[in-house]
Amino acid sequence: MSDQSIHVGARDLGTAKLVYIMNFVGFILPISTIVALIVAYLSDKSDELVKTHLKFQIRTFWWTFLMVIVGIVGAFFIVGYLILLFAFIYALTRYISGFMLLNKGAPVTGTKTLNLVAT
Question: Which residues span the membrane (predicted)?
Answer without folding.
Answer: 20-42, 62-92
